[in-house]
Amino acid sequence: MAGPIGPVVGVIGAGQLARMTQQAAIALGVELRVLANSPDESAARVIADVRLGDYRDLATLRDFAKGCDAITFDHEHVPTEHIRALAGDGFAVHPGADALVHAQDKAVMRERLTAIGAPCPPWRRIATVADVEEFAGENGWPVVLKAVRGGYDGRGVWVCRSAQEAAEVLATGVPLMAEAFVPFERELAVLVARSPHGQGVSYPVVETVQRDGICVEVLAPAPGLDAEEAAQAQRIALRIAHELGVTGLLAVEMFATASGLVVNELAMRPHNSGHWTIDGARTSQFEQHLRAVLDLPLGSPSMSAPVVVMANLLGGDDPDLFSRYEHVMAHDPGIKVHFYGKEVRPGRKIGHVTAFGDDLDEVRARARHAAVYLSEGVYT
Ligand SMILES: Nc1ncnc2c1ncn2[C@@H]1O[C@H](COP(=O)(O)OP(=O)(O)OP(=O)(O)O)[C@@H](O)[C@H]1O
Ligand SMILES: [Mg+2]
Q1: CB of 154 closer than 6 angstroms to any ligand 1 atom
Q2: Is the same domain home to 281 and 203?
Q3: Is 0.85 topped by the overall pTM?
């Protein structure tokens, strides 16, 4: 194969985020290279330049990075010290280790957000049941215990109602922190992008709906959010991106409570709460991330319809998703279907659908119909 025609962006990890980034890379003439664990992974199936290897091995990462104009990530699990080593070699790694550690380690994130005055729930690093009891004495039960590193889709989050429940979680031996249980009204997310030269852009604030710890639905913009609170959420997210020196995308998950906004956690890559932007914004989050990591001017985050709803497809019992396209597409020609080319397993995120229009209830019902039918083959 001849050499690359455009800039080369190396993505460590080959899941659905890298796969969807490829769509944006095609339009921009950017060449993506992915580091995959296996040729069967979601992104490895659609990208020409696939390298196989272990992202925990520095020599593999160094070899992978050679010839890349920028390096970025599909997940948060690359050891922080390896990211630092790659930057030390002169590679342009976005986000850098000093920023990314705040998305890798929830205790480091809480320390930093507290220091810059971003709104957080009461929290503490804990090691023993006595620590949890002391924390509960000050903040009440339930106490939310969280794995400091490595959690996702709610795995690594335990709502404990007693010292006994906390003891069971502590017995697993994973490093933990405690947070006060936030009685939130709903969950919001703000997606911003920041480029190495410091330009920042914010997408509209969205509402995320979770079931069993997994995001199932995203409503854009967050229904009924008043303009002042929306602007405040965007200011908090842009400020975090600036203070932490984030380069690329930053998703800030927040709780909306009766007494204001509280930050839940951070992600520094394309995020499930931003999948709606592929069909529903002028610039998709995937294009925005590529622009940011290549230090290009950022694109418009404005919406292409008044209301956009994204619903995740979770695997059901019947693996043949494709056989259900006909009904969904005939039922609603306006629905956009995104399938990640992953093996269908019950409960696994395998794709999403997007609907857009003028009326929230109508758009939401359409997205839900398509998602439920594609996942389960029935609509009840
Ligand atoms: N302090 C809290 N109080 C109440 N609910 C909480 C608290 N922290 C987390 N939750 C609930 O648990 C969910 C998962 O928490 P969190 O986002 O920290 O975990 P995660 O597994 O890293 O998530 P993700 O899937 O976004 O990576 C939140 O979306 C929220 O519904
Ligand atoms: Mg989360």
Answers
A1: yes
A2: yes
A3: yes
